[in-house]
Design a protein that fits this description.
- The protein is an alpha+beta fold.
- It has two domains: 2-227, no CATH class; 239-324, Winged helix-like DNA-binding domain superfamily/Winged helix DNA-binding domain (Arc Repressor Mutant, subunit A), CATH 1.10.10.10.
- It contains 13 helices and eleven strands.
- It has a five-stranded mixed beta sheet with strand order 1-2-6-8-7, sandwiched between helices. A three-stranded antiparallel beta sheet has the order 3-4-5. Strands 9-11-10 form a three-stranded antiparallel beta sheet.
- Helix 3 (52-64) crosses helix 7, helix 9 runs antiparallel to helix 12 and helix 11 packs across helix 12 (278-290).
- The radius of gyration is 22 Å and the shape is globular.
- The relative contact order is 0.12.
Length: 325
């Protein structure tokens, strides 16, 4: 629902609450809890209470949609979606063109990755989300929703006091407002001309921390999300960040990554090039693979390792997310 709207020259800023968006954020946390320590206990409890079949079905679609981040774009299929409840949104999604649905769900990779029976899979998607909502998340919303709406109304009052441009710069530590640009510091820098932006939608979620979540229909409509802290921040270091930093904190492993970055390599070829035993190389490869920095590809009798470039690019962002917490 649109709670409040502000206008400044050519720019409209709206404060919006969407229960469907909050549900998708919760699913992202459920399947990537090591990065959201504030909700680690919640994720463990939810998994323990959930039937295994439902958890596996949700996990399937999570893998397909980048741990549910791709599915969040379903919130933008029309301007009316934000005003709908969870079931009404799912009904609207069911009415989408099937190919468009999978393309949105998979962040643009739907056409290549979708199965032949697209419609059957979409029915599975609808069924597992409705089961999650009715069995578990509907009760969560009874507690979360009033708090989120109250916080969002306070944010609207803060916007009145500061002005739109000044307020936008306070939403997240890695949002920068210059004289003519709106800049987001993520795994790389994204900059938008303020003159071209016509609308900014400010959403809210209690599950997205520590992410700087930015969405856009086009360069004229930017979507930002306020991080609502309903629980105390966890002091621990996220496990995925710890594993990545541990994996990179070794001279031999850094040399191995440089070689693999240049060309896919096997245990045997790495051992020969670095003048180390295959057993030693295997131990280092295991650490790098467990840190999700490599993936494997078998060719004949040999296993080759390739660099997960995107995961490596995300590390600076993950560091800043931890510092922001």
């Amino acid at each position: 629902m649109i709670l409040s709207v502000r206008q400044d020259e050519h720019l409209t800023l709206e404060f919006a609450y969407s229960p469907f968006f909050e549900m998708l954020c919760s699913l992202h946390v459920l399947f990537k809890p090591e990065h959201h320590l504030e909700h680690l206990d919640w994720a463990q409890d939810m998994k323990a209470r959930m039937p295994e079949a439902l958890y596996e079905e949700l996990a399937y679609f999570g893998k397909y949609s980048d741990e549910w981040c791709g599915a969040m774009d379903l919130c933008d299929i029309s301007d009316e979606i934000v005003d709908l409840n969870v079931i009404a949104v799912l009904d609207a999604v069911s009415a989408m063109d099937t190919e468009k649905f999978f393309n949105v769900l998979s962040n643009g990779n739907g056409s290549a990755a979708a199965p032949l029976d697209w419609e059957r899979l979409r029915r599975r998607f609808d069924a597992c989300l409705k089961a999650y909502y009715f069995l578990f998340f509907e009760n969560e919303l009874k507690y979360i929703e009033p708090l989120l709406i109250r916080i969002l109304k306070k944010q609207a009052a803060a916007c009145d006091e500061a002005g739109i441009r000044e307020y936008v710069g306070t939403i997240h530590n890695r949002i920068e407002v210059t004289e003519d640009k709106l800049v987001f510091h993520k795994y790389r820098t994204f900059a938008f001309d303020f003159e071209k932006i016509r609308k900014i939608t400010v959403k809210i979620s209690s599950f997205i921390d520590p992410h700087l979540l930015v969405g856009m229909n086009d360069a004229s409509h930017i979507q930002l999300t306020i991080r609502a802290h309903l629980q105390e921040a966890a002091p621990e270091v996220p496990l995925d960040l710890y594993k990545a930093m541990r994996a990179l904190g070794d001279e031999t492993r850094l040399k191995m990554l440089r070689i693999i970055h240049r060309k896919q390599s096997s245990t045997q070829s790495l051992a020969e090039e670095l003048k180390l035993t295959e057993a030693c190389i295997s131990k280092h490869l295991k650490i790098l693979h467990e840190a999700d920095l490599l993936y494997k590809q078998r060719k004949g009798n040999y296993m080759y390792y390739l660099l997960k470039t995107m995961q490596l690019e995300r590390i600076p962002m993950d560091i800043f997310q931890y510092l922001d917490g």
